[in-house]
Write a structure and sequence with these properties.
With 376 residues, this protein is mostly beta strands. The chain has no helices and 34 strands. The strands form nine sheets. Strands 1-3-6-5 form a four-stranded antiparallel β-sheet, with no helix packed on it.
Length: 376
Amino acid sequence: GLHDSVAVTVRPGAPARLHVAGPRDTAAYVGAQLPALTVDSLTDRWGNATSAPVTWASRRPDVAALSVGAGAARVQPLAAGRVWVVASAAGASAPGATDSVALSVVPHGELAARSAVDAASGFDGSLYRFGLDGSGYRRAAAASGNTTGVRWTPAGDRFVLHQNAPGSMTDQALYFVDTSGTRSSFATAAAGSSLLQAEPLANGGGVAAVLSNYYNSEIWQVSWSGQLVGRLGPAAGAYDRDLQPAVSADGQLIAIYSNRGHVAGTGSTLQLYEVAAARLTDLGIDAVHPRWSPDGQELAYVYNGLEVRDRATGARRHLSTLPVGGLALDWSPDGVWVVACVQGALALVHHTTGEVLPLAFTGRGGFCEMSWRPGS
C-alpha cells in the first residue's frame, strides 16, 4: 500500500520542424507591397512547441530583398525572376528546421485563358482574365460549345475564339468576346466546313484561320468583317491537313503543323511556308503550337519542352526541358517572355536564359491555353 511520486518537467527539445505561414508559392510585380512573412510553428522532433531565434534569407537578393524585424520578414520585389525566401531556426537539431516559400517576380501583363473541365474543382472550361500577379482574377465568359483557340485582338479590346457554329454540333465558327463577356458571331464557313484556330495578323487585315472540311484543311485570311479574303498558305490536296497557323509580323512566313509529305496516318511535322516564293519547307520535327515573336525573328514551339528557332540562321535553342502541355503558347508584347503551360500551371519562360517563372495560382484551374493582352 505504500507509494511515492516524482515530478518530472519535460522541456521542449531543440528545434526540428519549422513552418512559415502563408502561401507557399506566389507571384508579384516589382515594387509590390507584400504581406510580412511570419513563422507559423516551430517544434522539436516530438512535436512540442519550442522557441529559438529565426533567421531569414533571400536566395536571390537581386530579385527580392528582405527587411527583417519584430519576428517577421518583409519581401521587396526588385526585378523579374524567381526567388526562394528561407527561414532557419538557430540551434536546429535536424535539417527539417528550415522552411522556404517561393516567389515569381513577374513583368506587368494580363492574360486571357481557358480553364480545364474539372467538376471537382468547379471549373467548366470557361474563359478567365487575370494579371500575371493574380490580380483582377475573374471569369470573362462562360463555357459554350467546345470553346477553344483564345486570342486577343491587336487592340486588346476583345478576343477571338472558335466554338460550335450556330445550330451545329460538328462545324466550328469564329466568335468575338468583348471585355464585358459579351459573345458575338465573327465568321462562319459554309455548311460542312469549319473555321478555327484564328491568329490575328500584325498588318491589321484580320486573322489567319484554318478552313477545314472532310477532305482537307488550308490557311485562309478572314477580314475583321468576317469575310473570307483568300488563301494565305499553300493549296491543299486531298487529306492534306494544315493546322495551328502562325504568321510572322511581316506576313512573309507562315508556320504550320501539317501532315504534308507524310504517308497518311503517320503523323505531322512543323513546316514553314514562304509566301513570296510559294515554297514549303518541312523542318522535320514533330513540334506543335508554333508562335512567332512580335518582331518576327524567333519562332517558339513545343518540342521536348519549349524550343525557339532563329529565323535568320535556323538555329534552334532549348529554353526548357520541363514538361510543356496545353494547347497554345504566346509571347509578351516586348518579346522577352514566352507564356506556356509548364508542369500543370501557366509559367513565363525567358526567351534567352530559359528562366521559368511559375504562376502557381493558375494550377488549380488547369489553364490549358492562353493569350497575352497586347499593350499590357
